Every structure is written in structure tokens, then in C-alpha cells.
Amino acid sequence: MEDSQHLELVTHLKDHLVPTAELEDLVSLFKSLGDLTRLRIILALAQTTLSVSELTDILGMSQSTISHQLGLLKQMNLVKGTRSGKNIHYRLADEHILTIVQTVKDHVEEQKK
């Protein structure tokens, strides 16, 4: 690549990078997924909708821990809850979440080869 082409590319990138506010949202999303408990919840909810008590049984954690982590995931719009009587059943907010997690999982597994 010639110097002039490289300079044009650098100028273009400088003018068209993702805005900082949007990058901060991305960082927050990755931080949310960067916790073992929250990631385990995401993977469980990828299979089916689950209540706090079901997640407690599956993950072997206290109800307060699960509820706290679900609250954080709800704040980040990663999970949604639907009330059913006394219980709230949680599910992934959309399929993009599982796509993100699966892509990262595939990358990690590829690095181990």
C-alpha cells in the first residue's frame, strides 16, 4: 500500500470510527457477560425459560445471588421476565445474546486447537 493510500485510509478511519458513547455501551455489555454466574445464567436461559428457584437448583447458588445477577442482566436488557402467578420466568431478551456468547465460545475453543 502506498503512503498516500495509507494516509487516506487512516483519515477515513479517524472520521468513521464508532462514537465513544456507543463503545462505552459495548464495553458495558461485555462486562455484563464477563461474570461467571451471569454467563452461566445466560447459558441456562438459552435452553428454556426459567424461574429464580429453577436457576437456584440448576446452578447450586442462593436465591439472593441469582436474583441479584438477574437484576443486573435485566438492567443491561439481556434478559426479560414474565410473571406467572408468584413466579417470574426469565428468558433471553433476544437471540443476539446467544450469538455473541456462542461466537466467543467458538473463538476460545478454536484457540485451544
UniProtKB/TrEMBL annotation:
GO terms for molecular function: DNA binding; DNA-binding transcription factor activity. PROSITE patterns: HTH_ARSR_2. InterPro entries: ArsR-like_HTH, HTH_ArsR_DNA-bd_dom, Metal_resp_trans_reg, WH-like_DNA-bd_sf, WH_DNA-bd_sf. It holds the Pfam family HTH_5. The keyword Transcription applies. The keyword DNA-binding applies. This is HTH arsR-type domain-containing protein. Keywords: DNA-binding, Transcription, Transcription regulation. It comes from the Bacteria. Residues 18-112 form the HTH arsR-type domain.
